[in-house]
Design brief:
The complex is a heterodimer of chains A (about 180) and B (about 140). With about 180 residues, chain A is an all-alpha fold. Chain A contains nine helices and no strands. The chains are: A mainly alpha (about 180), B mainly alpha (about 140).
């Protein structure tokens, strides 16, 4: 039990993610989290606005149940397994983030500057989170998958399109942290 | 019965995502600065074992728990769709520090501002649906 309260090292985390992929395949389903965003749009009535959302969302209900489980898993990890403690990140990264204005670097799981309660009264903070979300949602559907569907499931099945998508993920991420962050933080 | 299986798989995955720190904005930032092996180790080891699992399923024609054939559909060939879509996704992943799985993990973990990211992701998905026919694929 004490081991469960420690952060999971990469060599445990990675295989546990593969086991999630394996379990989903063995129950006859696919591993892909971003599809749920499309399903949720349909449930909320987006099918009245364009064809892309016209599908039988009930056939995707299993994935919404997985997502509900993921949410409960987050709660369990924080409440019972000492999750949510600050990751021990590289000290150079901490210093760099401090100079960018992220004083919470190295002391919390998420930057309080973006995910503290104060963000709800910060226009800049709300815009950053909202735009980040829009890019993730738009890009995931455009690319036909996200980290789970392409980087894990697609690459595990040796799909070239997934490799192109993952290269794209990294080009985008590098542009954001190296070129755009200095402009906005 | 089936629903409880999906729920348990989700709970397992949620715990792993949070405890692995893959749901931490700081870990994503650190990854894009190549300042730690952590995230590469997670993705790399997940991948190696994932490849082994899928090859074993194919080679030994392993069936689902329900006894059904497992089929893998090849993704359609294209470059612009995956590259442009991927870049847009990457920009958002680095900015919000969360991809679609971790978004829901963080909500469950009580980091409530993540709801803004989730609303954004749904808006982005909706925008894609509206613009789909005008985009190169």
């Amino acid at each position: 039990m004490d081991l469960l309260k420690q952060p999971f090292p990469w060599y445990l985390s990675g295989p546990l993610i593969s086991i999630t992929l394996l379990l989903l395949i063995l129950v006859g389903k696919r591993f892909g989290m971003s599809s749920n965003l499309r399903t949720m749009c349909t449930v909320l009535g987006a099918d009245k606005t364009c064809d892309f959302f016209c599908f039988d969302w009930r056939a995707q209900r299993w994935n919404l149940v997985v997502t509900l489980g993921v949410l409960i898993g987050g709660f369990i990890a924080v409440t019972y397994l000492s999750g949510g403690n600050a990751p021990v990140i590289n000290i150079d990264v901490v210093k760099e983030l401090n100079t960018l204005g992220f004083k919470s670097a190295g002391t919390s799981y998420l930057p309080l500057e973006l995910f503290g309660e104060g963000v709800f009264s910060s226009v800049k903070g709300i815009l950053i989170l909202l735009i980040g979300g829009v890019l993730v949602g738009f890009g995931a559907r455009y690319a036909g998958g996200c980290t789970s569907g392409h980087a894990i499931a697609g690459l595990s099945n040796l799909q070239l399109p997934s490799l192109i998508a993952v290269i794209g993920f990294f080009i985008g991420g590098l542009i954001m942290v190296h070129l755009i962050f200095p402009l906005i933080f | 019965m089936k629903n409880s299986v999906y729920l348990l798989i989700g709970i397992f995955f949620g715990i792993v995502l949070l405890k692995s720190e893959a749901a931490s904005w700081f870990r994503i930032y650190e990854m894009f600065h190549f300042k730690a092996f952590h995230m590469y180790g997670i993705i790399g080891s997940a991948l190696v074992l994932g490849i082994v699992f899928i090859q074993l399923i194919k080679r030994y024609n392993i069936k689902t728990f329900g006894g059904a054939q497992i089929s893998f559909v090849d993704k359609k060939k294209s470059i612009p769709r995956y590259l442009i879509g991927g870049i847009i996704f990457g920009l958002g992943w680095a900015l919000a520090g969360a991809c679609p799985g971790p978004m829901f993990v963080l909500l469950g973990a009580g980091f409530f501002p993540i709801i803004i990211v989730i609303i954004g992701a749904m808006l982005g998905t909706w925008c894609y649906g509206l613009l789909k026919n005008k985009l190169p694929h």
